[in-house]
Write a structure and sequence with these properties.
307 residues; mainly alpha; 74% helix; 0% strand
Length: 307
């Protein structure tokens, strides 16, 4: 008589099959989004090697819309509910139009290091907008750590530019406000709509304006298709304007807007590192000190109650 041993032999579970909590998944996805966004300023600088600021903004928006529309059509994504269109309009205005244009204009007069101030202030601005929208108050420890991290980034980046305000500061401040609104509103919308659809519909909604900007700017601004310009344009259109937001919004939907936004405290330092490696900019020895402080702030914000 044969014996069926399958009932008594314990199943071996591969470590790769172990369950990962939504919180861990959300943190990984949001962090991946931060890494994607950290290349945006260097990518924009490369794009400006062959495009004017208005042309670069319009073309990147049109290309991103083509990618997004292709994804929506191929997956037969349903139209958003009528109640979601106002929020999508905020995403389109902040992330599809305002921030790309304003940051591109700023990079004409500001260095990558100085422009990173915007990214340093985005986490606090995003968390503030989110708190106003949801009427929830993050803990005092959360705000203290977030404020300390943001202050560190501001001081560090201003040291890199010797504390001199640039002509692009107004552009940077405006970009900060519109992007924070787009992040916070898009993050909330991702709670009931897949994150990739949020940004996809956002860039599609912004496409008519970007198409008009491109049509007007391209004849006025000379275009030189250098390798850097093509690579930079491909990145800011495919990743900065669309792909990065796919993982970013999904991460925000899993761990919440306030906590996800604080992961961006590491983004300026990553951007500065790429500025050194890709753009040849020089940093002071203060960089490692700032990195340790910022990473400590991130740990505190991730442990603090942010809801």
């Amino acid at each position: 008589m044969s014996i069926d041993r399958s009932a008594i032999v314990p199943e071996r579970v591969s470590p790769l099959r172990r369950r990962v909590s939504p919180l861990q998944n959300g943190t990984v996805l949001a962090a991946l989004g931060v890494v994607c966004f950290s290349f945006s300023f260097p990518g924009t600088v490369w794009a400006l090697d062959g495009f004017g600021p208005w042309s670069a903004t319009g073309v990147r928006g049109v290309l991103a819309a083509v990618i997004a529309l292709s994804a929506l059509v191929s997956t037969r994504a349903p139209l958003p509910a009528r109640a979601d269109w106002p929020a999508l309009a905020v995403v389109a205005g902040g992330c599809g139009l305002g921030f790309p244009l304003l940051s591109t204009l700023a990079l004409q007069t500001s260095s990558t290091a100085h422009s990173a101030v915007v990214i340093g202030l985005l986490p606090v601005a995003t968390a503030t907008v989110s708190a106003l929208l949801t009427r929830r108050r993050p803990s005092k420890v959360f705000w203290a750590a977030a404020g300390a991290g943001a202050a560190t980034i501001v001081v560090f980046t201003l040291m890199q530019s010797h504390g001199r305000p640039t002509a692009g500061d107004l552009y940077l401040f405006a970009a900060l406000l519109v992007c924070a609104a787009g992040y916070a509103v898009g993050g909330r919308l991702s709670a009931h709509m897949p994150g990739w659809r949020v940004i996809a519909w956002g860039v599609v909604l912004a496409a008519p304006v970007n198409l008009m900007v491109s049509a007007i700017a391209l004849p006025q601004e000379p275009v030189h298709l250098t390798v850097k310009a093509i690579v930079g344009m491909a990145y800011i259109a495919g990743v900065s304007q669309f792909g990065g937001f796919v993982v970013w919004y999904q991460g925000m939907s899993l761990i919440g807007v306030p906590k996800a936004s604080q992961l961006q405290l590491a983004q300026p330092l990553l951007t500065l590192m790429w500025a050194v490696l890709l753009l040849g900019e020089h940093l002071t020895p203060a960089a490692p000190v700032a990195a340790v402080i910022v990473l400590a702030c991130i740990v505190v914000t991730q442990r603090a109650r942010a809801s």
